[in-house]
Amino acid sequence: MRVVVDLSRCQGYAQCAFLAPDAFRMHGEEALMYSSNPDDAQRQQVLRAAAACPLQAILVDQLEGRDAPVGTSPS
């Protein structure tokens, strides 16, 4: 799985860091740091985090093609 966060849309609500702390974390109050290729064991947490993002700034691409991408790509 590949994760991309549109950092220009991210407002630091930290829902992703709360739901998938191994893949997303806040650095300071506003800067999000994330793993672009999280471990497959984190799949469900990462998918929940992407779905919970209030600004839909997280795109998850299922590289195996098993599932459709989650989130929206930046416009």
Description:
- Keywords: 3Fe-4S, Electron transport, Iron, Iron-sulfur, Metal-binding, Transport.
- Pfam families: Fer4_13.
- Its cofactor is [3Fe-4S] cluster.
- The protein is an alpha+beta fold and 75 residues long.
- It has helices spanning 15-19, 43-52, and strands spanning 2-5, 24-27, 31-34, 58-61.
- The chain has a two-stranded antiparallel ribbon with strand order 1-4.
- The mean pLDDT is 87.
Helix content: 10-25%
Give the termini separation.
22 Å
- Mean pLDDT, all residues: 87
Instruction: State the oligomer.
Output: single chain
Structural class: alpha+beta
User: Strand order across the biggest sheet?
Assistant: 1-4
Largest sheet, if any? Answer: 2 strands, antiparallel
How large is the radius of gyration?
A: 11 Å
Number of strands: 4
Encode the helix/strand succession as letters. EHEEHE
* Overall outline: globular
Kindly estimate the percentage of residues that lie in beta strands according to DSSP: 15-25%
- Uncertain segments are none
Helical run tally:
2
